[in-house]
Amino acid sequence: MDTHVHFDVFRIKDEIEAVLARARAAGVRRLVAMGGAPEGNALAADCAAKYPGEIYFAAGFDRYLATEPRELPALEQILDRPGAVAVGEIGLDYHYSPETRDAQRALFAEMLALARARRLPVVVHSREAEDDTLALLKEHAAAWPGDPARLGVLHCFTGGPDFVRRVLEAGLFVSFSGITSFRNADSIREAARLVPADRLLVETDAPYLAPVPHRGERNEPAFVADVARALAAARGAALEDVARQTTMNAELLFNIRGAT
Ligand SMILES: [Zn+2]
Questions:
Q1: 4 C-alpha to center of ligand 1: Å?
Q2: 258 located within any domain
Q3: Which residues surround ligand 1, an ion (CB under 5 A)?
Q4: How much distance in Å is there from the Cα of 57 to the middle of ligand 1?
Q5: Per-residue model confidence as pLDDT tens digits over 79-113
Q6: CA-to-CA distance for 143 and 127, rounded, in angstroms?
Q7: pTM here?
């Protein structure tokens, strides 16, 4: 299961059938279409409506909207649509936008409150904002009224072993992307070995970050099989075990009924 795909960046409206066919052929049977802004949220919900049981979606207001006007009722309406499984992508990025820190924190807190009100897990982005991300997630966890196993996931993990320990302590799943396969990513592979099998997810973050041997290509859900292969190699585990476990974990986190 590919837990993180950006169809809005893909611009694949006419290609989605072919993309899904390649995913199915690679053994990737489900995916979560990721929102983050009004158009992306609507497209993700539309994809889920068209392919029920195969595409699910997350919707939210991501960090780019921190200093923009935003309409929470519109987001609430999208989250009422069938196939909504998470609030996302949301989070903090001080690498690209350090000047909007305060506004980013306020928006992230607002999105976490929305997730609590709906008992939906969160899909979280964090870059050069580890301390603030964890502080807000800990407050969220303390107030979380739902199943503690379904708090959320830190997506596209790019931190080292210390950060992964703190993310696990906060109660989140950790999702690994194609970066796990990059030659210079030893600290991510080291972190990958520290995550218990029942807290691991895999994702492509397509169309970004295509894994080896597809580097330089546009990433797509079929390639999550290569991410799983890199993760299995890093952990010294069998590919089938990583595939089965990450699928079960995603089903638990996103509350998608059984199917393996
Ligand atoms: Zn993303």
A1: 6
A2: no
A3: 89, 205
A4: 12
A5: 999 999 999 999 999 998 899 999 999 999 999 99
A6: 24
A7: 0.96
